[in-house]
Design brief:
single chain, 12 strands, 39% helix, 312 residues, alpha/beta, two-stranded antiparallel sheet
Amino acid sequence: MTERPAVILDCDPGHDDTAAIVVAAQHTDLVGVTTVSGNAPLADVTRNALAITGLFGLDVPVHAGCDRPLVAPARHAAEVHGATGLGGTSLPEPTRRAGTAHAVEYLLEATRARPGCWLVPVGPLTNIALALRLDPGLLDRIAGISLMGGGATTGNVTATAEFNVWADPEAAAIVFEAGARVPLRMAGLDVTHQVRMHGEDGDRLRATGTARGAFLADVLAYYGRSGRGGDRAPAGSPMHDPLAVLAVTHPHRFTHERRPVHVELAGTTRGMTVVDTRPHAPTDAATCDVAEAVDADVLRRLILDTLLAACA
């Protein structure tokens, strides 16, 4: 792309969210960062976002958003990310403060002031859904929504549900409905598990001799050990969240197919994204560009090079 797209990153840092923040800062015009309860409670993920943006010298506003899903109680991912969202790492106390406006209010105001932004949510979709409910005209002001969530064939919290959608499926249903009016891209587990960082990548980051490099090496090391699946899981740290950013900045590295996507809201499959891959699926229901393949080696190298450049 010849022009850096404007992006608002909605996240719940989170180890892979950390990489997404750095990738967004390097490859987009990062307008702002909003936080949502997800991998850890809201206070923790907001602190993490403030500390990360401070460590990497990013002069972007951070606004805290929803501290629970639309309907269900808040549930977190301490078994993967640690109690505070960034287990196994050490960050200094933030020197910055979150903005006074709620993230939903910020999303609405920022898109009025800067039409043409992409919204890139990489956590539960609560903030985005509430913004759409409060102001449906938001869809007329944005370039699109590129999200990390769901999966066409697998889950990670349950056999069928991925964490971000499972954590607030009612919000996810609202956001997937928006694909009828605005470009909507989905990077689900089927592709995000293909892009993994390994021990030698962390070694290269630590070898920079910088505080940033040491922090990112710790991020990869902890995340690679803590993922679900134990010895049966593939080696390495899956880079789920950066792919939602790269789907905007490097779309030619993805194969997207326009599909109908339905979010299950009840029963044992609650939180499942049902992706209709039938050749005869109704075309008028196809509202989501689902990533079905990625150039995994190229994207892994791109993420590593981006993280290394941010350590300079």
